[in-house]
Amino acid sequence: MKNIALIVAAGSGNRMGTNIKKQYLKLAGQPMLARTVLLFEKSKNIDEIIIVIPQGDEQFVKKEILKDITFTKPIRLVDGGSNRGESVYNGLKTLQNNGKDIVLIHDGARPFIHESLIERLIKFLRENPKEIGVIPVIKVKDTIKIVKEDTVIKTPPRTDLYAAQTPQCFYVSKLLPIFKKVEKELNRFTDESSLVEAFGYKVKTVIGDEFNIKITTPQDLIIGEFLLKEGLV
Fold it and tell me: What is the pTM of this model?
């Protein structure tokens, strides 16, 4: 009965606008991916770590990104695919289909995940073994508009809107068969929850963490540096 962190860091980070892949950019002098991995390495709730990286980056990641981390847990580097879904699936296929194992799928570009959130997600799923999975969400603060061709089509009630975060937490034995069913169409899904929902399953939620931000743009990088400087994360 293991809890496995599957860290997805195989993207190119085009929206960051740099020649360096965003997961390798530094925050307060430390590569973002290293910071993310270290949080799971230190977690008392995680037994194993899988990092999904761009094809051909294995030696670079070992020598430049993870070189200062002393690992006490099993760690594997796995080549990513052409989209997030394929990358996650590549990681999942390395796992044994143990009925009690839990996988926590986390964005490599979310370097401020807190131990308390990891613990809450695992605790919920262990206490509710009939559920397929649970994800962290936070309430949307802005009014959201559905827009087509520069025209507002609908304004959904803000009370019903939440933003999804990671890690998204699932039983491996329940998630892997779903991925197998749609392995040729994984580009359709933006996260694991949406894939599971497409098959009619209900995904549970817990309240996430406002500081568990995803570093996607240069502005996010500035915010991340500020959070670290002020000791907020």
Answer: 0.95
